[in-house]
Prior knowledge:
By secondary structure, the chain is α+β, with helices and mostly antiparallel strands. It has a single domain, classed as Trna Endonuclease, Chain: A, domain 1, CATH 3.40.1350.10. 25% of the residues lie in helices and 32% in strands. The strands form three sheets. A six-stranded mixed sheet has the order 3-6-7-9-10-12, with helices on both faces. It has a four-stranded mixed sheet with strand order 2-1-5-4, with no helix packed on it. The radius of gyration is 18 Å and the shape is globular. The termini are far apart.
Amino acid sequence: MNFHYPNRKSRPIQQPLSPSAGKLKLNDSYANRGMTFEEDINHTNAHYLHIGKSVIHKKPTPVQIVSVDYPKRSAAVIKEAYFKQPSTTDYNGVYRGRYIDFEAKETRNRTSFPLTNFHQHQIDHLKRVVEQEGICFILVRFNASQQDYLMEVAHLFHFWDQQDNGGRKSIPKTYFEEKAHLIQLGYNPRIDYLKIVDNLFFSTS
């Protein structure tokens, strides 16, 4: 099935997570790296919700269905659909009484993170969240090294805004190593990004 983005090429829609994806299992393997970045984050958020730490969910995107097949009377298969509007960011919610909003991206590039992973409307949205004093950041996974980073959006804005002045079209991985925050893979939660959020946004030291 193809989903068409506003002013963008269509792409196949990813299969949704199974109904059990958000459930916590005692036999979840620490070493299971077959999970996608999105699944790791979703499991992490499910754990946070389960222990009452935060309420953070992946944002649903409204779609317009334009083509449906009925292979049998008891089932319908969506063949083509369009996103009604450009997406903003992947996740939002509430943590410790504050609004939280972030985007999650991954790259196969070994040495840098291409800025083409973002779009202007997403940058504009993130800037508006910052203006309202919301908690705002990006999560980035480098697939080659299986390293996850939390980066404050001010760094992203710096590289994005410099593009029009002949700046880089990507953020070097070395910059992540120096300025961003490496997230150690864990058991439950798998990607404990709120531990870093605590230090960045709630530390009194």
